[in-house]
TrEMBL record, chain A:
It comes from the Bacteria. The keyword DNA-binding does not apply. Keywords: Molybdenum, Oxidoreductase. Residues 21-139 form the Aldehyde oxidase/xanthine dehydrogenase a/b hammerhead domain. SUPFAM superfamilies: CO dehydrogenase molybdoprotein N-domain-like, Molybdenum cofactor-binding domain. It comes from Parasedimentitalea maritima. Gene3D superfamilies: Aldehyde oxidase/xanthine dehydrogenase, a/b hammerhead, Aldehyde oxidase/xanthine dehydrogenase, molybdopterin binding domain. This is Xanthine dehydrogenase family protein molybdopterin-binding subunit. Transmembrane segments: none annotated.
TrEMBL record, chain B:
It comes from Parasedimentitalea maritima. The lineage of its organism: Bacteria, Pseudomonadati, Pseudomonadota, Alphaproteobacteria, Rhodobacterales. This is Xanthine dehydrogenase family protein subunit M. SUPFAM superfamilies: CO dehydrogenase flavoprotein C-terminal domain-like, FAD-binding/transporter-associated domain-like. It comes from the Bacteria. Residues 1-166 form the FAD-binding PCMH-type domain.
Length: 788, 261
């Protein structure tokens, strides 16, 4: 019998009732009394000198409240970067100023130049058209290798070059790795592109700034995954507002995928302008603006090499990556191709020597930052592609080659600085073999061939580092923040609980899964527990949701706070039953004295806490509310094995995904249905990246894929029914729930198996020279490969 | 969007009069025009809706031809053009349900998007575009990308299709927009085969005359096996090269013939 409540049960998501009935409270649903609207005039050229911005005529247009340009932001900080990378030579990365409104130069299409505030949005747009811009166009640089070549146009004149940093990891291993390559029996190398993506959450970004002149308080409503982080970054670095005078609220948020982690210029603008104009200022991004102002994802160009000995053991791995930063450093951009990517290069394998080089490059494009998986998909993709290619070159079974090199003993210290606590890679591969019916593949291939189609099978493994992250460690690595989480559990007199968590839910279902954990701990009904998140005035502190950290870190904080609650409640119960604290047991919402039939109900104890007539007032305070901060001791390491089966139409090059199977190890599972959903969504995005999505600039820096007419999002009929299994569970050893996180796995684990499958299909048709095709695997690209 | 006046006449004559003013524009289903206006790329001073004109509605069979009113939605053609299944099938695959419920045949043909489906159907069906002023043969109507024989203010009141003996439309979708990356409509009429290609050419919809000649002699997919198109006139963009489009025209034509035969 499946459980119907508590940990391991799959109650339906309670938040879906409001989402699916149109009753969600999204930022754009909020309208402040007397609000004005802002429209940003954005650059339509990629690179140019801003000679003048004449707003005289525009300011006289109907309804205009005020027009802002960079001149209004003198003395105001730039949009900060939250992570500093130290390069191979021990130098700090180059960090250009990121002004709220373009200063002196425009550096990418979509950069805001001026902001018009008016009584209505249409009036603001009308006035923006009347602004007289004098921009002297400069040649743009879009290609990363061209950007770091001698004599390239510079994106930032005050930097020495377009190279943000040249990072080596582990630098001390460099020579040993090179030596291992010289000694290798076989070397497989592969050059590939990890395609640039636009996250495109269903809800575009929105910001509303408010200012209260009588109290001097500022307030920002924003579509963020981490409102406290925005409060800190914007308050401390941009606007100089102390945290106690600034409230940031992120109510229901319609998808984030990483792109809503970052602090954006529009947020700072609305907060600043609300005070300057003394009225609320609202901005709602159009989809077109989102394409050219939301941070993009991925965009790596990589060469990877794998060295093997004569017995096909991996002996060394070497990778060279160019990572696009875009024109400015977005909040966590520098960390993505480095610490979130280099540390994952061991994958599931015991390769003893690894060296990762990453050159981060400025170009005249939209900033690039974390997108679902952030660095880990880029690591997994190149590693699992090169392993597949090696198997093909050596004529060995790709699964056998993987198995032979699996890490089998835990804890395992990789040569790239991290220590995996648990895992069982053979178990997930065994499970995959079963659920994907790999033994039936040959028969399915025959059937496809009889239908005039090519069929391919692609398999890959993945490992990710989630539950981000131990604060002292990330501090050493350059993070300008800690990565703990907080929770306050407030028990009311009548026994209901409110949990204020720093984790933010923007689709993950925390309002359902978090109560399952607490309900189990106390033995009460989940309906008695309410989750509050997304408001800096209600939640003590929060680092937010990303890096599959909510349950592993935020959930752990909640467990710790609940443990404190239970400890105090037991003292109250002991007093009520005239027993010793140590003899009190809590089960099914009842406190009892061990070995007796004495008991008091949860509600009696909570009532006593607030009506302390019979209460140990000399020992403990009334009330029942506790806060805990949890800082993880390590990352968590979810892992798994994925298989994709494709059919390719040789006439058109069109790929259809016939089967997709995922065997994941997420440690313990709280709500299997929600986990399934997270994996489904992640795989959908991974398939999107592999087959459909490509953000493309022309050489002048014009965004060619600037709308859904040209940027292909995956639709329901692009993906198959997935076969998803998470019964392999090696619990995390260092957090109280033994959970690992499941939010990004699907997006990390799926692109390589899709590409491996397509290459397999083409090889099966005798195209043995086709060893790689860059994503997205559009029909045109596959047709060209088939006819190469 | 800029402000505009709005009129909804109930006769073609009133619509023509309303369109006489400067910068007035006809509004069909608005599926192309409204997004363009929202982007501020079009700024008509007046929109004249054609959706309240009874004489522009209806799908009627008259002998060998099927007449579709100029304001009939794609969804209505899909449901009502039962006498011309290939046409109904084509209309049933335009865009998504919302687009099909609003978008109209007149709007599609007036717009003449180089990747739209209706132009291929009209050209292959030797259709006649009927306007408030005249009748225009499809061969004379399409004049290149987004260009037609329509005069300013001229309204498509209906389209007369010659129902072929056999026909089929094959659409290979562009993955983002799901318009045709290449679409080929093949129609076998008593007086010959017509092959109309959309999505592929810089010049908009066109007839592939070599294929028509080959199919006149032998209406089978094999008959066109050896034919190729010159890629230099094709569209090349991020979704497909010129060569790929030229190749797809061949594949889609063969599939359409096989499905129709
Ligand atoms: C998401 C989406 C997907 C789509 N997918 C496809 C697709 O797969 N295939 C495809 O072919 N199309 C597709 N379309 C376009 C759709 O078919 C439109 O409906 C069509 O192009 C325009 O028809 P409309 O009635 O909406 O015209 P409108 O947008 O109202 O008008 C378009 C133009 O035609 C003029 N016009 C309208 N009616 C008449 C008339 N009777 N006489 C003279 N001029 C007139 C207008 O003045 C305007 O210039 C898609 C559109 C969208 C939004």
């Amino acid at each position: 019998m499946p459980k119907d409540s508590g940990i391991g049960a799959s109650p339906k998501r309670r938040e879906d009732v409001r989402f699916l009935t149109g009753n969600g409270n999204y930022t754009d649903d909020i309208n402040a009394h007397g609000q004005a609207y802002v429209h940003f005039l954005r650059s339509d050229i990629a690179h140019g000198t801003l000679n003048s911005v004449d707003t005289t005529a525009a300011a006289a247009m109907p309804g205009v409240v005020r027009i802002f340009t960079a001149a209004d932001f003198e003395g105001v900080g730039g949009v900060p970067c939250g992570w500093e990378i130290t390069d191979r030579h021990g130098n700090a990365m180059q960090e250009p100023k990121h002004p709220v409104l373009a200063e002196g130069k425009v550096r990418h299409v979509g950069e805001p130049i001026a902001a018009v505030i008016a009584e209505s949005l249409e009036q603001a747009r009308d006035a923006a058209e009347a602004i007289d811009l004098d921009i002297e166009e400069l040649p743009a640089v879009v290609d990363m290798k061209a950007a770091v070549a001698e004599g390239s146009v510079k994106v930032h004149d005050d930097l020495t070059s377009n190279l943000c940093y040249d990072w080596g990891f582990v630098e001390e291993n460099r020579e040993a790795v090179n030596q291992a390559f010289q000694d290798a029996a076989h070397v497989t190398s592969l050059e590939l592109v990890n395609n640039r993506l636009v996250a495109n959450p269903m809800e575009p970004r929105v910001a509303i700034g408010e200012y209260n002149r009588s109290t001097d308080d500022s307030k920002l409503y924003t579509t963020s995954q981490n409102p406290h982080v925005i409060r800190l970054l914007m308050g401390a670095f941009v606007l100089g507002i102390p945290e106690h005078k600034l409230q940031v609220v992120s109510p229901d948020v319609g998808g984030g995928f990483g792109t809503k982690i970052f602090h954006y210029a529009e947020e700072a603008f609305c907060t600043f302008a609300a005070k300057a104009c003394n009225r609320p200022v609202k901005w709602t991004s159009s989809r077109s603006e989102a394409f050219m102002s939301d941070a993009h994802g991925r965009d790596h160009v990589t060469k990877i090499e794998l060295a093997l000995d004569a017995d096909n053991n991996f002996t060394a791995l070497r990778t060279d990556t160019y990572a696009n930063m875009g024109a400015y450093l977005s909040t966590f951009a520098p960390s993505v191709p480095t610490w979130l990517h280099g540390t994952l290069m061991a994958g599931n394998y015991k390769t003893p020597l690894i060296y990762v080089n990453v050159k981060a490059v400025f170009t005249n494009t939209v900033p690039v930052d974390a997108y679902r998986g952030a660095g880990r998909p880029e690591a997994t993709f190149q590693l699992e592609r090169v392993v597949d290619k090696a198997a093909r070159e050596l004529g060995v079974d790709p699964i056998a080659l993987r198995r032979q090199n699996f890490i089998t003993e835990f804890p395992y210290a990789t040569p790239v600085a991290v220590e995996y606590d648990t895992g069982d890679y053979h178990a997930t591969m065994d499970k995959l073999t079963e659920i994907a019916d790999l033994s039936g593949f040959d028969a399915r291939r025959k059937a496809s061939v009889a239908n005039g189609k090519l069929r391919g099978l692609g398999v890959n493994c993945y490992i990710e580092a989630c539950g981000i992250a131990p604060s002292n460690l990330v501090g050493q690595l350059g993070a300008r923040a800690g990565l703990y989480e907080s929770a306050t559990v407030r028990v009311n007199a009548t026994g209901g609980l409110v949990v204020m968590t720093g984790s933010h839910s923007h689709g993950q279902g925390h309002e359902t899964s978090f109560p399952q954990v607490i309900a189990d701990m106390i033995g009460i009904d989940e309906g008695m527990i309410e989750i509050v998140h997304g408001d800096t005035s209600k939640v003590p502190m929060g680092m937010g949701t990303y890096g599959s950290r909510s349950l592993a870190v935020g959930g752990s904080a909640m467990v710790r706070a609940t443990e404190k609650i239970i400890a105090k409640a037991k003292k109250i119960a002991a007093h009520l039953m005239e027993a010793a604290d140590a003899d009190i047991e809590l089960k099914d919402g009842e406190f009892s004295v061990a070995g007796t039939d004495k008991s008091v109900a949860w509600g009696d104890v909570t009532l006593a806490a607030y009506v302390p007539h019979n209460y140990p007032l000399e020992d403990i305070e009334p009330g029942l509310e506790e806060t805990a901060f949890y800082d993880p001791a390590n990352f968590t390491y979810p892992s798994g094995a994925y298989a994709c089966e494709v059919e390719v139409d040789p006439d058109t090059g069109k790929v259809s995904i016939e089967r997709f199977s995922a065997a994941d190890d997420f440690g313990n599972i709280v709500n299997p249905m929600i986990v399934d959903g997270q994996v489904h969504g992640g795989i959908g995005q991974g398939i999107g990246q592999a087959l459909l999505e490509g953000c493309v600039y022309d050489e002048d820096g014009q965004l060619l894929s600037a709308s859904f007419m040209d940027y292909a999002m995956p639709r329901a009929d692009d993906v198959p029914f997935y076969s998803v299994d998470h019964s392999c569970q090696t619990p995390c050893t260092h957090n109280p729930l033994g959970v690992k996180g499941c939010g990004e796995a699907g997006a990390i684990g799926s692109p390589p198996s899709v590409v491996n499958a397509v290459v397999d299909a083409l090889q099966s048709a005798g195209k043995t020279d086709v060893t790689h095709i860059d994503m997205p695997l559009s029909p045109g690209r596959i047709w060209a490969a088939l006819n190469s | 969007m800029y402000n505009f006046e709005f009129e909804k006449p109930s006769t073609v004559a009133d619509a023509v009069a309303a369109l006489a003013g400067d910068e007035a524009q006809a509004l069909g289903g608005g599926q192309t025009l409204i997004p363009t206006m929202k982007q501020r790329l079009a700024s008509p001073s007046k929109l004249v809706s054609l959706s309240g004109i009874a004489e522009m509605q209806g799908v009627q069979r008259e002998g060998a031809s099927l007449t579709v009113g100029g304001a009939v939605s794609h969804a209505d053609v899909a449901a009502q053009a039962t006498d011309y299944p290939a046409l109904a099938e084509m209309a049933g695959h335009i865009g998504d349900p919302a687009v099909r419920n609003r978008g109209t045949i007149g709007g599609s043909l007036a717009n003449n998007d180089p990747s739209a489906d209706y132009p291929a159907a009209a050209l292959a069906s030797a259709a006649t575009v009927v306007t408030n002023a005249r009748e225009i043969a499809a061969d004379d109507y399409f004049q290149g990308m987004f260009d037609t024989a329509l005069e300013d203010g001229e309204i498509i009141t209906g389209v007369k299709f010659s129902v072929p003996q056999a026909a089929n439309y094959q659409k290979f979708v562009q993955p983002a927009s799901r318009f045709a990356l290449v679409g080929v409509f093949v129609a076998k009429h008593a007086d010959g085969v017509r092959v109309a290609v959309t999505g592929a050419s810089e010049e908009g919809v066109f007839r592939w005359s070599e294929a028509e000649a080959a199919l006149d002699a032998d209406f089978s997919a094999d008959a066109i096996a050896g034919l190729t198109l010159d890629p230099s006139d094709m569209i090349g963009d991020l979704h497909g090269t010129k060569e790929y489009r030229a190749h797809l025209v061949g594949v889609m034509t063969k599939r359409a013939v096989a499905a129709a035969a």
